[in-house]
Amino acid sequence: MKISIVVPTFCEESNLRAHYLACMHELEELNKRYSQYNEYEYLVIDNCSNDSTVDVALILRDSDPNIRIFVNDQNYGPIWSPFCGLLNAKGDAVLLIAADLQEPADLLIPFIHALELGYEAAIGCKKNTQENKLMWYLRGAYYWVLKKIGLVKLPMRYSGFGLYSRKLLEVFRTVHITEPSLRVLLPTCTSKIKAIPYEHQTRLHGTTSYSLYDYIREALKTIVRNSNRFPTYAGKLSLFLALFSFISVPLAIAIKILAWSSMAPGIATLIVLMLLNSSVILGFLALIMDRQNQMLSRLEPASIHVHQSMIYE
């Protein structure tokens, strides 16, 4: 049986060699426990790096013919490039692991053990991090929101790191969506998922290519893709405000009578009108969002093709 190690890279010249050696060490340990996995490939899919990442990969390939290198002709972002790497892998089990050394390669054996037990995917979920604690808590709040409004139950603190069976990858191949985010795609394709916690390490070399804007954009996209409950919430809030505004009319009249001199003229009327106006706006907004969801559900997803400028196999 064959294991594929898919390594998405973007400007990882300082990390790639150490990452390769760590993965080779884990493959040696794996062969001692699961001798049936006697073949491997190390697949580097580079997202059009502007440093010497590809040169480092080519040097490694000179000493290891099991290394395959795909170089994208442009930067396709952090979703499509790794997904393309998964679909190009030839192994019976495929490990997706970033080259930044923040995801531990020593989870390979626990991942394989989960697949041997019948799971179709074994994924790494962060239990702690050595990086910015503020970002850690913000991500926690983000996952909590996804859990409350999501159509499917998404894995908590999961970003794609994991081992996937060949059967599951063939299912991925048949799915046609605009952005194949594994966070959303995985739970919609299978329920046989084993989550294994790990500690997210500090990046030792280089810097992340993700900016705050990229994080916010990806978070909003995931929320929109995974929920159609916003119209429901807006409709409920609109109904609540409308009822509250009608109830507040006699209350405002009573307060005005009891405190005639202390309340300025028109304040009670202004409050009631503001509540009514808000309820009407939210009601129409709920209708518009619901209609938009119906339209989007009928649209065919746009097809994006990831092209390579160079392939070394």
From TrEMBL:
Nucleus among keywords: no
Residue span(s) of domain Glycosyltransferase 2-like: 4-170
Cellular component, GO annotation: plasma membrane
Top-rank taxon: Bacteria
Coiled-coil region(s): none
InterPro entries in alphabetical order: Glyco_trans_2-like, Glycosyltransferase_2, Nucleotide-diphossugar_trans
Annotated keywords: Cell membrane, Glycosyltransferase, Lipopolysaccharide biosynthesis, Membrane, Transferase, Transmembrane, Transmembrane helix
GO molecular function per UniProt: glycosyltransferase activity
Gene3D superfamilies: Spore Coat Polysaccharide Biosynthesis Protein SpsA, Chain A
GO biological process terms held by the UniProt record: lipopolysaccharide biosynthetic process
Signal peptide from the UniProt entry: none
Transmembrane spans: 237-260, 266-288
Protein name: Glycosyltransferase 2-like domain-containing protein
